Amino acid sequence: MNDIWAIILAAGSGTRLAEATGGERKQYLEYKSAPLFWHCARTFSRVADVRGLVFVFPPEDAPTMDKKLRQFFKTEDLGVQWTVVAGGERRQDSVRNGLTGLPRSCGRVLIHDSARPFFSARLVRDLLGALDSGARGVIPAVPVTDTVKRVSGNTVAETLNRAELAAVQTPQGFETALLREAHDRALAEGWEVTDDASMVERLAEVAIVPGEAANVKITLPEDLKRLREARTTVPCTGWGYDVHRFGGEHDRPLVLGGVPIPGGPSTVAHSDGDVLLHALADAILGTFGGGDIGTHFPDTDPNFDNADSGMLVREVLSMAERAETRIVHADLTVIAQVPRLAPHAAQIARNVSRLLGLEAHQVNFKATTEEKLGFTGEKKGIKAVACVTGLREM
Question: Which residue intervals make up region (2-C-methyl-D-erythritol 4-phosphate cytidylyltransferase) (predicted)?
């Protein structure tokens, strides 16, 4: 009964934003190419203690969103269990429905509004830390900086002491059994609440942890500008490594960086055996988390038999472009006892520069030996490493 799950509420109608969004529900609005609810899921997945997620969608959307989430998780596996539940008429009804999606092993639960996509994993860990310390319920709160007045009609009835006030956020964390009890009481006694803490407060003390100024809720049309913030360019690095053993006279002629090496040993390979371009392609894929060339161009596929490795590099460059990653530098090293590569170094560097569409100073090529040590020193094979720098739009 110690598992921790989070319920992501994405069942609201978003009536205050309907005109500004063309009728699209705010939980489906995109920020950095992903809907708001998926940003919330990503953040929860970065906290190791969170075992699973319950997504609560409008009843009419639930079947479709279940299918979409299967695709999301296939493309980007967050490493957590998940399920979809249909929401209710009110927020508290949606939470109550979400509780039915929790496994019996869930001892603590986090409730979060999908319209708050900017919360951090640190905030989640703070909430869980408070629960670990004995709190039965805990919420994030930020101090009220404005003077707050209670009004009656068009006149001020009272000025409130802002030192005693706080603005409350989600996620909110609770013992699962306690939250279920609160919802049962709310249903039986007709409570109308705006958050789960206001239910639990009637049954137990609710603790507070510091909230986050950035953890704003997308509620009004002016909030939409937060989803149009300027994109940032982030440097990223990919590293590639490849090895080919030398073969006999009927294997692939030696090619490095797309340059034939006359008199060099042949290599055993499915494609053209260009160990340098294979390492380069893997490094490019590394700049945007694109996997490896073995996944994209398996040696079991006859289409890649004796394939031009320059073509493979051009293909991974296209993948990088689709991932909005621009390659700006490559540092390459070939390790081999034979053949002597110094006479070919300048041509290899020029050809790689051409493949990458870079200036000469953006590609560095080196060749070295391992002082007759290991399989390269014994002239049994050749290997290459590549370090590629990219700039990615985030």
Answer: 1-235
Residue 41 DSSP label: H
CATH of the domain at 383: 3.30.1330.50
Residues 161 and 269 in one domain: no
Distance CA 390, CA 252 (A): 32
Sign for the pseudo-dihedral over CA of 317, 34, 53, 62: negative
- To the question of whether residue 369 is assigned a binding role by annotation, the answer is yes
What is the pairing mode between strands 363-368 and 325-335? parallel
294 in a labelled binding site = yes
275 lies in the same domain as 195: no
Residue 158 labeled ligand binder: no
Domain total of the chain: 2
194 belongs to an annotated ligand binding site: no
pLDDT in tens, 95-135: 999 999 999 999 999 999 999 999 999 999 999 999 999 99
76 assigned ligand-binding residue: no
Residues 210 and 320 in one domain: no
Q: For residue 205, say whether it is annotated as part of any ligand binding site.
A: no
> Are residue 83 and residue 156 in the same domain, yes or no?
yes
Q: Is 37 annotated as a binding residue?
A: no
Is 77 annotated in some ligand binding site? no
| The total number of residues written for the chain in this structure | 394
Whether 223 has a binding-site annotation, put simply, is no
User: Any known ligand binding at 271?
Assistant: yes
Tell whether residue 140 is among the known ligand binding residues. no
Angstrom distances, CA of residue 13 to CA of 18, 21, 23, 35, 183: 8, 12, 9, 15, 22
219 with 314, same domain: the answer is: no
Q: Is 299 annotated as a binding residue?
A: yes
Q: How far apart are CA 27 and CA 135, in angstroms?
A: 30
User: For the segment 240-264, what is each residue's pLDDT rounded down to a tens digit?
Assistant: 999 999 986 658 899 999 999 998 9
